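Q: How do we represent a protein-ligand complex in a form that can be generated token by token?
A: Start from the inputs.
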Amino acid sequence: MNVLIDEATLQAGLDRLAAEIEKRYRGKPLTLVGVLLGSIVFLADLMRRLTIPYGVEMISSRQVATESNIQGPLFIQADLLAPEVAGRHVLIIDDIYDTGETLWELIPQFDDFKVASVHAAVLLKKKNRQRVPLGPTLVGFEIPDVYVVGYGMDYRGYYRNLPYIASLSPEEMKNLAQNGG
Ligand code: 5GP
Ligand code: MG
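Then emit the structure tokens for the protein with magnesium ion bound:
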């Protein structure tokens, strides 16, 4: 395991992001929409830094299988979310922007909810991975194309607890898959 972003650097990045969010959304009705599951530690730390008022909602990006499509659509409980975000500025909070496909699917769905605006803030953005012409507005850190864990992000349930971001090598991932921790 290789430490990519240590705890102090991570926390300084959170301070920067929170300051930027306050600057952009002060005086506007803001709702943070966290994407389960990897973003919850990031979201909780952001929430504790923001002094402007805001609402919080959670959505799941886990793919739900349908009969015709094993991948299925991203799951949003629209009937619950729509009344909470109508007329408000939505800031989607996600852990990693990798290919961008998650946000590419999520962002247009908010148009139906008559939001005032929709943007995304991600803790990490992988370089040279983007496959869609749409990116996050706010980025904590750019990282190389490696598999990362820690700070809420896991590999097979391991390492969500780490207070820093680390990368796992393919060998380490293979070991965990075969033998567990
Ligand atoms: P995208 O749709 O942008 O390709 O993928 C984004 C999602 O894939 C992230 O929200 C995250 O859940 C997952 N993901 C992508 N790369 C990594 C990684 O290196 N580590 C972990 N734990 N999850 C990742
Ligand atoms: Mg995710």
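The chain has a mean pLDDT of 92. DSSP finds five helices and eight strands in the chain.
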